[in-house]
Amino acid sequence: xxxxxxxxxxxxxxxxxxxxxxxxxxxxxxxxxxxxxxxxxxxxxxxxxxxxxxxxxxxxxxxxxxxxxxxxxxxxxxxxxxxxxxxxxxxxxxxxxxxxxxxxxxxxxxxxxxxxxxxxxxxxxxxxxxxxxxxxxxxxxxxxxxxxxxxxxxxxxxxxxxxxxxxxxxxxxxxxxxxxxxxxxxxxxxxxxxxxxxxxxxxxxxxxxxxxxxxxxxxxxxxxxxxxxxxxxxxxxxxxxxxxxxxxxxxxxxxxxxxxxxxxxxxxxxxxxxxxxxxxxxxxxxxxxxxxxxxxxxxxxxxxxxxxxxxxxxxxxxxxxxxxxxxxxxxxxxxxxxxxxxxxxxxxxxxxxxxxxxxxxxxxxxxxxxxxxxxxxxxxxxxxxxxxxxxxxxxxxxxxxxxxxxxxxxxxxxxxxxxxxxxxxxxxxxxxxxxxxxxxxxxxxxxxxxxxxxxxxxxxxxxxxxxxxxxxxxxxxxxxxxxxxxxxxxxxxxx
Length: 495
Ligand SMILES: Cc1cc2nc3c(=O)[nH]c(=O)nc-3n(C[C@H](O)[C@H](O)[C@H](O)COP(=O)(O)OP(=O)(O)OC[C@H]3O[C@@H](n4cnc5c(N)ncnc54)[C@H](O)[C@@H]3O)c2cc1C
Ligand SMILES: NC(=O)c1ccc[n+]([C@@H]2O[C@H](COP(=O)([O-])OP(=O)(O)OC[C@H]3O[C@@H](n4cnc5c(N)ncnc54)[C@H](O)[C@@H]3O)[C@@H](O)[C@H]2O)c1
Description:
By secondary structure, the protein is of the alpha/beta class. 29% of the residues lie in helices and 25% in strands.
């Protein structure tokens, strides 16, 4: 790799999260670039001065969250097992500290794995907080003290995002997902969860599974804005059925800490009245914002977009032509595999002489509630709003086989959305056990522009729930597209 002997590095990356790590490893390993990666020192709970290799996903996002989801599922299995002849589930007791301690050990191990991945790829790791000085220079406030200046031909901004709390009085008494994953103990009283995105629903599901009384509050009639409406309703029904107290069309007003350590949470109910709940914990899952402050961005000329995310072109180049950006800080689609894709596309473009645009279409994702929701492509509402012509909707709602003996009163929902003139499957959605595992395979078919006829000609695996996706013959409705014909999802996940 040509370094021009002018700069110390071909690339300096800020942030060793999902996007920054993959981009840096690829640039070094595949394209021979001389790379340095700046990352904050490791801390289990993120702060302005702590982070760690692996980033949000590994340390305080996808991975610990999924471990907690696994942990929360046992009670449901013990309960369901009675229908299959197992007795005495009352002996099982849940111990939060065991789970949190084991999770911490695993995350510490993964952080070391990420450090090693970067080292093995030949990337220099610099521990500290980086900011831009000019378009080729960064200054790092080193974790060991003092500062170091790094010069680079190219700079990659991959510093991610951070949670935002609803701006109400007493918000300092609420926690975010950062703290939720490392709570020293679960509160004695009920838990209030505010918001209806991925994070609120996943934590509401986790604590409900662990036997806590959970009150979930959100502003709209249904949770998960941007997802298919029937799936949104099914998720809400399932959560209600499992004992989560749901308050739709409500707004947080204020929090007051009591002498006994509990919190009075005030909210405006559906009827417009002010009400309150006394609880032990409040979680705000009210969104995340890109980290764009105190980094010298404006001074160097890196522009922000209307969402206060870093403005990039289709190749992830910022408004300064040697500065690039990937992942949550660009808010295109804040998911780990998307940050990874953007990182690899950047490395190919910048160092591989292969201009590569990341493609934000037909990306499957899942909300790890119980049972989970998984989705790929357009919802029925998005298809209708964006396409022209006829759209066929196939829906199947059925009692999964396991529930016949377990007695659990919960249905599985599957939907397929088809563009009639081409017969292409443009959307697939599922709420039910194993939905994320199933949807990953469906996403491959959809990436290959599979038609409904090809789904129908696929032979199922029996007996599974997934076979329903290749046996849905009866269209439930045909709707008329009312859009301009722009066929795919826009970049952002939430509508
Ligand atoms: C609770 C939770 C659960 C999630 N679950 C899922 C999931 O199940 N599936 C999924 O696909 N996505 C999930 N996500 C989203 C996913 O974690 C993010 O999309 C992904 O981590 C983004 O990667 P990134 O590289 O853009 O940023 P990050 O992973 O956030 O990495 C950015 C890094 O930059 C560092 N940094 C910041 N500022 C500086 C600075 N000035 N100097 C040096 N370093 C700096 C930070 O310490 C951090 O390590 C979840 C997120 C959360 C919060
Ligand atoms: N399973 C996954 O893949 C997964 C899991 C967690 C997070 N993520 C990613 O992280 C991103 C952030 O997640 P999130 O759940 O924090 O954000 P989100 O944007 O998905 O949801 C935020 C929720 O908070 C509500 N809200 C915002 N401001 C509010 C206010 N002032 N008062 C009351 N409610 C308010 C919104 O209406 C919305 O329901 C997601 O978009 C997703 O891409 C993914």
